[in-house]
Write a structure and sequence with these properties.
Elements lengths: L1 E5 L3 H12 L5 E6 L2 H11 L3 E5 L10 H8 L4 E6 L5 H7 L3 E4 L4 H12 L11
Parallel strand pairs: 1-2, 1-3, 3-4, 4-5
Length: 127
């Protein structure tokens, strides 16, 4: 599974990358810190999944999830936030899952695999 990390906090991206690179079937394809670079990285890397900071700085379009999925139709998006109360807004906006930044790593991994459900795979991703 190809994962793109999108969070403005370098420490969060590093921690996520460290956790995910220990998973045998996960490849971190990039790390970005602002919305402006998100679309470029999605187009260049064709990730299966984006771990997307719900408060990612930049010009956020109200249709960001639609734009991302138009680029990668099978793309899954898990919203991350330091505010657990952002869960409903993220899911209503189209996120496939939600993780609070305060959740333990096991919860992140469980959510990642639940969201992908076997469907996040290089062989099934449109290029």
């Amino acid at each position: 599974m190809r994962v793109l990390l999108a969070d403005d906090q370098a420490k969060v991206r590093s921690a996520l990358a460290l956790l995910l690179t220990q998973e045998p079937d996960v490849e971190v394809v990039g790390e970005i810190g602002e919305v402006e670079r998100l679309l470029t990285w999605v187009q260049a890397t064709h990730p299966d999944l984006i771990l997307l900071d719900w408060e990612l700085p930049g010009d956020v379009s109200s249709n960001l999830f639609g734009i991302l999925r138009a680029m990668c139709p099978r793309l899954k998006i898990i919203a991350l936030s330091g505010l657990p109360e952002a869960r409903q807004a993220a899911l209503s906006a189209g996120a496939d899952g939600f993780i609070s930044k305060g959740d333990p790593p096991e919860r992140l991994l469980a959510t990642l695999y639940a969201v992908c459900g076997g469907g996040c795979d290089d062989d099934t991703q449109d290029a």
